[in-house]
User: Fold these one by one.
Assistant:
Number 1:
Amino acid sequence: MCGIAGIYTQTSELILRYQSVFSEIKRLLKHRGPDDEGVEILPDKGLGLVHTRLSVIDLSPAGRQPMWDEERTVAILFNGEIYNFIELRRELIEYGYQFRSRSDTEVLVLGYKAWGIEGLLRKINGMFAFALWDNVRNQLFLARDRLGEKPLYYFWDPGTRTLLFASEIKAILVWPFVRRTVSPEGLHLYLAFGYIPSPYTIFQNIFKLSPGHLLRYDGDSPRIERYWGIENLGRWRASQREYQEAVREGLIRAVARRLVSDVPLGAFLSGGVDSSVVVGLMSRLQSEPVRTFTSAFDVGPRSPKYNVDAEAAEVVARAFSTQHTCFVVKMENIMDLLYRVIWNMDEPHANPTLIATYLLAHFIKSRGISVILSGDGGDELFGGYSRYLADFQVGLLRRAPRWMRSALRSFLQRAQGKSLRKFLKALEKAEMIPGTGEWYLSWWEIFPSDERLRLIDRSWCEAWETPYRLVDQVISQVDAPTSQDLLAYLDLTLWVADESNMRVDKMCMAHALEVRAPFLDHEIVERAMAIPFREKVGLWKEKRLLKEAFSDLLPEIVLHRPKWGWFSPVYYWVKDAIWEEASQLIRHLSETGIFSKEAVRYTEKEIAIHYPHRIWSMVVLAIWHEIFIENNKIEIEKW
């Protein structure tokens, strides 16, 4: 795990004019790689490369980056892990290539020489973001892993034909010619999703390289192409036994590959199915007890509601005889922590679990752990969310005659009771066309389009359809047999890649903690997503297939307890810990020209009572704006 950044420009005097920027980039990315650093500047080529290193495999100086081949024809900046590097190394040695290190990085350098960029990307199994420089062809390649576990951003200036790239946006903003302006598309995406999916960011003219994509730049203009996608969604026909064997064998192999490390490792444990499978397999594959970690929340007498998973994790830890620790998040310094996590995220990100992840990562690192395994991705692959089953049930409602649905809706609009209101929402969804942006966002939206148009100043409203268009574009990439298969695919492509993975990467790498997710092994993803949705779940039971595949491994509590989910006490944080400061920040949003004053007043009076998560998302946006737009300099010490 590392931080990478660089520039390739056809206006080479930029390299000489701004040489001091390279030192600033090293400083800004030091938290991602505190063990070593390297800079390579080739003014005659218009190339500058920066690397900060977190040493995990081959701790010696031989793993230092930028790494060149012996003839200095190929160089690489690499962030991530290649899990099948031992097999690939063996294959390259058979071809006659000689290695000077034990690192997986060198496999990428020599693999490019042997197989070319397309062949290399087909062969590697891992999480990665890398920049590869071909010194003969004067060509730069940027690549991001298939599921988006590692971040990679870029900026393109056609006037000077300059390409900037970095692991974090702040290492792009440091260049004096990059303007800090808010993207209207990014703003609408944030308010709709609570995060900003690829390829957009909240900054105008700065983009994320999408997962499974490759960028080529030869000095003319960048070209982006997709090198991986899910091609057999929900169409694998086999027996339950064959499905279970494929999932079981694949996950055992994925976990084993992620245990290769020259530094101590552990695991997140929530007490749910996914993390319990990972920890259970680790306990069988390791001779030493697994070191497991979870978090709980202290909000006084209201705490038990938020700590169901933490209590289950204790039971699972005892079942697998792990060395378990529970870190308690207290309701202290919430606003100060918000500033810290938003500085590390680079963009507004509305998930309140940012704080718990940030604090837990700091705690784990302080205990001498540098690598942690997680259960991320299991819900999307194996039908772990209740909305998947709900969508199936809505589909059954859609078969009823329209007059019947209309009559029921009229009756329920006058009815009382939580269960009846849920049924009314289901009827409303039954009127939507499945497989559209509107349909998908009806499960997700923080601020629906009418609310966004009410809140945002008119000058920002032109991009209001961006969230729907983005989802429609992702839908066009795949042929889904059912709306449940499509829902899971969209969650994997959007939520996992740019909400979950970015949140986990940024919060953990803020403390130089590497996270590995066996469920996001692309071989597992391809197998799991090919299994039809109805084969993964029961009529009222999420993850039936996964639970049955590991029924001999999982404790009874995991097999039979309902999914609870990991969520923060955001209502109490807003109400009891930050309300005064939050009100000031939201009022300040109207002064930025983004929100109208009338909308801010409406938000404080109406939304605060019923929608604390919306208040939280607006506070996050206001803090982000203060840090990254209103300040002339990114002050790392301040945040």
Number 2:
Amino acid sequence: MNEDMTRKALIDKAMQKAGWKVGKTEKHDAREEFVVPMPGGKNQFVDYTLMHNGKILAVVEAKRINRGAEQAREQARQYAVNVQSYVQPDEPLPFVFYTNGHDLYFWDLEGGYPPRKIKSGNYPTPDDLQYMMWRRQKKTTMATVEINKDIAGRYYQTAAIRAVTERFEQAMQREALLVMATGTGKTRTATALVDVMQKSKWAKRILFLVDRRELRQQALDAFNEHLPQSPSYPKEGEKSFPLDRRIYVQTYHTMKNMLDKQEDYVSPFFFDLIVMDEAHRSLFNTFKEIIDYFDAFKVGLTATPKDKVHASSYSLFNCESEIPTYEYSYEQGVKDGHLNDYEVLKVRTGVQIDGLIGEELTEEEKETLWDEGIDPDEINYDGKDLEKAFTNKDTNRKILMELMEQGIMDESGTTPGKTIVFCANQKHAESMKQLLDEMYPHYGGRLGEVITSSMERVYGRDGLIAEFKNNDFPRIAFSVDMLDTGIDVRELVNLVFAKRVRSWIKFFQMIGRGTRILDDEYSARKEWCREKDMFQIIDCWENFEYFKENPKASSDKSSMALPVRLFNARLKRMEVALSVGDNETAMVMRDQIRAQVEDLPENSVLVRDNASTLYKVNNELFWEGLF
């Protein structure tokens, strides 16, 4: 295929797809064979000039399909320089494209970045190219834009933002990776970075990618709160993809499906910045098409400690020597008082199950799984024996009793604070919920709730997730994967590992659910959680031993329950009254103690467990015989 055939069969069609009118007359904005008059009476003929209102915004040099597109680089550069010198000397230097019909390269000579391949082979739309030229002329240095401290005011957040802007502006890199522990405000940091880039005209349209639907709403809420002047997508009930927003928040799955269908053309130059939340290898192997499609600045966010981040993630964000652009570790966050530390209560359920785990796979098998977007460390084929273990009532009863007796309670001392129980599957979660209601019926079925993707009314402002985050009850969420990562609930004080975890990255993310501290302003704290200086993990499957972690053991700091304190106070007062001959006060205390005992919930597992002792006091003679 010669050059002319290449242009007609491939290049013209690609330009027309992007909305350009290709031809040789003044009515065409993708003008073919544009004449550049040169000194000495000679002319140059530019294969294509992309124009707006008679002004050339970009030149395109074409080569036939069996030649390397890179061979056109210098010729295309000279065309751009000559267009500015001899055609429009008062206009900025045009952008440069060069292609062989399959491979397309873009070069912003004035921008200072080296040429880069547009992997989709798609061109910018006329509107995109006009905006790109406007941005290049109007943008200012990001270094002089003040970071909004109301959005991200902690020292490490501002340091992370400056590290990214300096990498983009001074080091001339287009990718950055932030390693920041869960609970340290990655989304806030990204929001403040967006604010800086928008104010300095480095970015207009931003794509924020998340891996779960529930995290999409969480991110949207953050952007809408802190950047209300930047209209966002999607709004409630919105399905079509609009082109007039500034902030786009989507899941990786939804964005990939949109690009696969391309019902409406979205050019690779549509977004200026892409922020990828929970950036880890299994996502990139499945959704790398999104990253490759768009020619934008890219920022990865991950809570995975830098020594656990896979080399491919460092490579994707062009981080040499496997060093992230900025790191703020969990340990530093605890030291600075920005994160809560945890203690671990290890529960022996007596169940030992053997099975195939990710570490037993061959390297070849692991690579195959990575390519399919599956983390091999999460593979855990345990068969029927494990299913029996998860649905074993004795095992689950012991786990729930440990939570209710040893977990961190609210101020009353009788009801556990916000808790996530990590379950193995839907059946396991439902059986745990059923058993909880049987053991503690006096809560009327509202103490715990199954919150999984299989349940109805999970998402939205009135969904189960919102209820768990914002309301007093339910206190306990039985989750299968859905709440393992990303969910932001400051008041979480108990995490129960009722399943085995074999991915270190996922294990660390699950621990991160409890690290967030309460609001600095006391009045803004929820009524059911006014204080939190730590959280507790109840590990029922020896996960810490598996990962060779040696955490701080639980010191049983839980305060004595309020009814118990009241009982003991009345008992003490009765004893003192009797010692000084004050029988009237002693009788009042005795009657109050008796009423308290009689009001104990008879169906409570703790009450039933002590039924023999309570039987002895359940008669008139016992109380009359006290004194």
